[in-house]
Every structure is written in C-alpha cells, then in structure tokens.
Amino acid sequence: MNLSQNFQNMNKKLFLLPALLLGALLMFAPGCGEDDPCKDVECGSGVCIDGTCDCDLGFFTDNTGSCTVNAAGFYNVSENCSPAPYTIEVAAGATNSQLKIKGFWELFQADVNVDVSGSSLTIPRQEPDGDDYFVQGSGTWTVNASGKPVLSLTYTVSNESVTPIQSVTCTSTMTHQ
C-alpha cells in the first residue's frame, strides 16, 4: 500500500467513526417515551417535569394533579374579625408558587403575598402598607363542589407602633366567586 492509499483508508475510518459512535449511543440510550415519566401526564395550564405538573402563574393542581385550578379572581370573605362579609381580589404572584391578595383584612391597601406549597398556604411576616401593621399566618386551599378554589386562613395582624404591641388573630374562609 502506498501513502496515498493509507491516507484514503484513514479518511474512510475517520468518516465512519462518528456514525459508529452515534449508533452505539442510540443502542444503549433509552427509547423515546419508553421510560418518560411525563408520557401520560396532562398538565392543563402547566408543563410536566419528571412526572409532576409545574403550573403556570396563578394555576394550581386539582385532585388529579393537572393544573386546572385558576386561583385568580374575586373571592367572598367570611371571617371572625369582620362583622360583615367582604370581597378580595387574588392574582398570580411573582412565581408560580405565590399569590397576592388585594383588599386583605379589608384594611390593607397594598397586596399581601401568600406562598403556596401543594395545598398549604403561608403568609410570611410582612408589613404591606409600611405603617407598622404586620401580618403573618397560614392555611390551606381546596376546591369546592363547583370546582372553585377556597382559601382557609388563620392569620395575625399586629400593630407594632404601640407599646405593648396590639394584635388580633383572625380565621377566614375565602371562596372564589
């Protein structure tokens, strides 16, 4: 064999090397859809990640795990701290695990932020209006027979501009209209 033939054979081998490597990789890689944990998962308003729905902003999973519960909208509020029912507005927060509530406690002017984890709700300690009135609390959310979200919260509002600090603890049920 002369040098030209050696060079030609080497080029053929180098040309075939990527194809052989790709074939070996495909042979040992799992088939598309065979072990895909999202194969049969319908997420509605969200995307499936590792078999679990990651919902779009303002949406939560229903009892099937699909992102079909839209938390945004107006809610009727019934609570032990208010003599009459009132209305709040719930909107999506900054992330898909947050809500913001307008008109919370009937007195806050700014939004109150609520963290959502599964069916648990947490109101982290915050001072919505910057006036020494703080709020914090926790609760849960469920879906009623009409498919509407219901937020059940227990929270404490404290006036920290006075000594001793004054506080009131409220229990409320907020039902989507």
Describe the structure.
The chain is mostly beta strands. 15% of the residues lie in helices and 45% in strands. The mean pLDDT is 86. The chain is elongated. The chain contains one helix and twelve strands, in the order αββββββββββββ. The longest helix has 26 residues, at 3-28.
Within the largest sheet, what's the order of strands?
5-6-7-8-9-10-11-12
Return the structural class: mainly beta
Query: How does the major sheet shape up?
Result: 8 strands, antiparallel, barrel
Into which percentage range does the β-strand content fall? over 45%
Reading off the top of the CATH hierarchy, the class of the largest domain is best stated as Mainly Beta
Mean pLDDT: 86
Treating each run of at least 4 consecutive H or I residues as one helix, how many helices? Answer: 1
CATH topology value of the largest domain: Lipocalin
Which short descriptors sum up this protein?
mainly beta, 1 helix, 12 strands, 177 residues, elongated, single chain, eight-stranded antiparallel barrel, 3 domains, two-stranded antiparallel sheet, 15% helix, Lipocalin
